[in-house]
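Friendly challenge for the regulars: who can give me the structure tokens for this chain first? No prize, just bragging rights.
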Amino acid sequence: MKTILVPTDFSSNAGKALNFAAEIASSASAEIILINVNTLVESPFRGKTTLEKKYNLPMQEAIIKELDELCKEVSETIHVRISSQTYGGTVVNSIVAAAEDYKADMIIMGTLGDTGFKEKLIGSVTAAIIGKVNIPVLAVPLLSEWTVPKNMLLAINHFDEQPMQAKAAVELAKLFYAKLTVAVFTDQDTALAVDYIGNTRGVLSYGHELESIYKDTSIEPARLYGHRFEETIDQYIKENEVDVLVMFTHKRSLVGSIFNRSMTKKMSYHTNIPLLAIPVE
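First reply, four minutes later:
Bragging rights claimed.
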């Protein structure tokens, strides 16, 4: 991992995400790119580009100053390389563009911005980013606090994902000498006996494959049984003191995204611990 992108709206939750990024960057010797997406406010000079920019100049200057202060604070406190940039336009498209511009290896951002509970109802920017980019996104919930990860959980519900696609999770685990548990969920309401047997064999095989690819990594298989995925995962996280939840996310067609909402995006709203979303084809 060389470059971590951190979008900020200067909210407290964005500050938490930056703290997570700084700790990870420090351990990985990575650089942080801190960005703010500046949408110009309505002005009486709408349509007159030069005057409109001049009207918004004080706000632009204030944003740049605040970004500079954040960079200075982080570099002096945790001693990591960090720089900043502002973008204009829509938030989601600007973050996607920034990830491509800087060839970021990971995006770390909070799950709620200044709009708080309203955003949780209508959809957060973080959830939108999870479905748009081809790099891992670490979503940092509002209630989470930085702690060195000791237990990570990779939750899967089928075995289409190749072990190589878990690279980001394994690298994060190795960075902090954390245990990585690979768990498969079986729905007690719909599963047949053959599903229980298949999932047990599948998760054991998957764990062995991970260990054969990623040497010197502590990987344990687990089988989760329950009536609802979210509740079962929550219970496991509490009972086993999991620090980071990892899930794969699949790109969907427009129709598929309407009728079958991504479970990873659901968990980005639901979980109270950081969620590492890894995109797969």
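The longest helix spans residues 49-77. The chain is about 45% helix and 25% strand. Your move, everyone else.
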